[in-house]
Amino acid sequence: MKSIKIILAVLCTFLTTSLYAQKLTMGYLFPAGGQVGTTVEIEAGGLNINRATKVLFSHPGIKAKLEPVEESKNERRKRRRLNDQSSPQLADRIKLIITIAPDVPCGMYDLRLQGPKGVSNQLPFEVASYPNFLESKKSTKNKPNKVESLPAVLCGYVTPGGIDYFKFSGHKGDTIVASVKARQLVPYIADAVPGWFQPVIKITDARGKEIAYSDDYHHNVDPVIITTLPKDGNYMLQIHDAIYRGRQDFNYRIQLGVIPFVTGRYPAYGVVGKKVKQELAGVNLDATKTTVKVKKDGYHHLTFTNKIGTSNAVQFYALPKGKKLIHCPKNGSHLTLNAAIADSLTSTSKIKKYKIYAEDREQIIVELIGRRNGSRIDAVMRLRDQGGNIVAEVDDTEDPIQGLMTFHADPVLKYTATDAEEFILEVEDLHRGYGKDYHYLLRRHRQMPSFNAFVSPANITIPSGGTSTFRVDIKGKLKRPANLIVKGLPKGYTTSSLKLRAGRRWDVSITSAKGAEVKRFPIEVKMEYPGPDGREQADVLPVDKMLQAFYYEHHIPAAELALDVIEASPYRMSVDFNIDNPLTFKFTDEAIPVKILVDKDPGFNDPIELLLGRKNGIFSLEPISILPEEKEKTIYIKLNPTALERLKKRKAKPYWQMYIVGTVKGEIVRQARRTFQNAKYSEMTPVFMIHLDR
What we know:
mainly beta, 6 domains, 58 strands
């Protein structure tokens, strides 16, 4: 019995987590949008968000002010019952009063919260044509939420084991659309499997007879119902999670009514600056033809607007200005380096063929864009020689830039010709599907980047005069060392660790000028690396990281990369050596001495606890603090002899990044059975290198 008590004590100690410098983290918005030209009141749930001071949007026409949420201890405790599916990451609540200008286009926009210690992650906020209708948790199947008028956006969230019911009236012959946004609102849920809300919807008549049902829309998780009502009368729409989970972040928005819905725009590909005449397919449209012209290459989300409102967004891909694009050529046409081909599997043969000529030892690289542009195609590409033999075949190729995509269905084919020859490229859907919705774009490349680079967080917070870091993640293979370039920093700002030597993750530090103005401004990060034609530059894409189902990490593209300069801390940290030159150690060393310098404001006398910024099995630091009377301190980074023994077997001369964090402890917050130690202040040294000298 005594041993059991000891184990329980250890477990309780483990659950009491000490987390320094807790940042603002949003888990949900409810409702997650509003009608254009109106003011809407929404609730945000998350961790530490009650410290927010400002709301940031990716469109200047959306403004907000903050109001505290009145909540008793009993109400808070009720939400945190240990036998439900709630999370401490949703412990805080704040109210946002959001005003949407009349000229804001309908669509999804980034919303972030700004606090004294930094900026939160982003969540989507939808601007829609129709008013919100909020469901009540007191409603039941027998007393459903009564929707008095349509069209409307039904807003709610599902509870564990629960089903939400909405009653509405309709007329015979009405083509009703019920379009759900759920995963689009919270793309990934860290502690849920499969990692998002999986909604199921159904419409029944007054007698309970099923009229329509949907649990997805093509390859999208969020379902859509398009149905014609058989008679005048009342109908019921119900929504629940596929496996009956629930929580406030299992929230949804359902656009319901006789509203425009576009099922396809053809062609779905174009060139920047050139008009593309399109045919529209869908329901409740007052036109079937339109013209589109875009100003930027890449992926776009286009809508259609009529007197009823604005439709759902349909994807469109544009090639860079000046590129040649051939639409729907004859079967057997040549695919060259000079022109891309936009096509679809409209033939009942279900296979399209193209000719490709290659010189001796020339590498053939063909990229197919389909599913990434909203196509239903799950493409397979095959390359056949003149004898009809398959010399290369490819199905799925992951595109790391598509952070919201979990099933990568677009292939990239690579093959090196052994002789000068004309090959046949075949395109087919893996499931033998065909039709206009099975569209795709084919491009030949001389070469494709062997990696993608991402920078996170997308909003970097730095104290005036202090130092902060951002991380660059490499997906793929970076074969040679590269240099990072940070653009847009004001005069007096400095950076460190810009030479990316190896590995898939790399930290870069920015130190702001002492007395720097408190403001927010955009910056850019680029990568310069050796290519076949000399030095080349690539953009480093700003992203927010999200965790799916306890394990998978995704890079979600952000609207911009911004640096947020906040109020200065009462101290600043640095080291007394040139950070451009690595610290070195040998196998015989037991520790690495590092002198830390602290510039303190007059009257600041709190002890500063020092920690290693990057931990691994080689380096460690015993608990140590800079005392009130000290302005410098030599610390000793200990070396693990066992880990060093393993390093002896390697031939390489490895480098490690390191920085020292100095924290002044702040308030202790208890949430259910977990304890969080926030930081009053947290500063750090610039990033420096440690090198093994063999």
